[in-house]
Amino acid sequence: MDIGDIFSLVLFSVWLMLPAYLPNNVAVLVGGGRPIDGGHEWAGRRILGDGKTWRGTLVGTVVGILAATVLNAANHDISSLLGVTFPMFPLLVFVSLPLGAMLGDIAASFIKRRTGRERGASFPVVDQLDFVIGALVLTFLVSPVWFLSTFSIAVLVVIIVITPVLHRATNIIGYLLGVKQEPY
Length: 184
Ligand code: CTP
Ligand code: MG
What we know:
Blueprint: H1 3-30, E1 41-42, E2 45-46, H2 54-82, H3 91-114, H4 126-142, H5 144-150, H6 153-177
Antiparallel strand pairs: 1-2
The site of cytidine-5'-triphosphate has 18 residues, from α1, α2 and α3.
């Protein structure tokens, strides 16, 4: 595989994951208001915490759906421009990528609270990959045939490698801009 193939593979993977990457960042920007757990505790700790809100989850998911819509509309033009054949998202996947990403992040907060980690505490590896696992699992469940034909082993490897890098980079930018409380 030459360097051009690797570049194409990375572009393909980023395209595929954009509807799952955007929601968490959008949630950081718009989050606030009523927490999903309604402030309730379980065994002396918040179920999820104030960091998981209805507004962040809803707006994040909607922006991810819009991203998939825009990518599908631009697919033909950008594919021919860059010489990379990008995937078209099926309708159910418009929802499964962003919603799965949000649910993965919410599941991680649940685990963080159960293991005594306060809101905002870092949880290495889980923080970087929770939303990827959520997006991939929900997409596999709603569209297994599309999933298996689109997410090759090579694409999955690229996603696992580039996601923590992109995640870290965007969080540092968010922290520097003052919209995120921690740089992770
Ligand atoms: N956010 C939100 N709703 C979500 C996810 C995130 O409103 N479903 C917003 C919250 O304002 C949150 C911020 O984005 O504080 C940063 O998200 P994240 O780092 O995932 O949450 P933390 O505050 O670090 O909380 P936790 O420890 O539970 O992950
Ligand atoms: Mg956090």
